[in-house]
Amino acid sequence: MQNLTEPTFENTRRLESLYKYLNYEISSSVLYVGGWFYFMLLIVIIFAAIVFTPFMLYVLYKEEKKGWIISFSIIVLLPLIPISLFYPDLLLIGLAPFYLFCFLLRMEVKGWLTEMRARNDLILQKLKKENEGTELEDWLVMK
What we know:
Blueprint: H1 13-27, H2 29-35, H3 39-62, H4 66-86, H5 91-94, H6 96-130, H7 135-142
Helix pairs in contact: 1-3, 1-6, 2-3, 4-6
């Protein structure tokens, strides 16, 4: 159980990493458009989506964003299953919801990061105020 009297910093590393990779996924949507013209690009963007999805779901799970995981299932997986089973020629269309989801998630992750950083800054300010003139202030400045 967390001690409520001692402030703790929130770890933003996972969300920052997710945000960085979402930038790559969004930029690969250009490849999605190019995939209509080149079959090899289709293979690359399918591979990128398959490799990125477990990481994205892992971060959402660790950050306890269950609503986003459910949304991913509804927006991406639900339409993708019948498309891949009955209309494999339309698999490229099945990737459109994935890139839409990545775009929406990227905008939301930016907000989460802003909030977490603001809370961390507030905790840091409180610690500095409480420990004015102590060695902790020198340690925080050095770090």
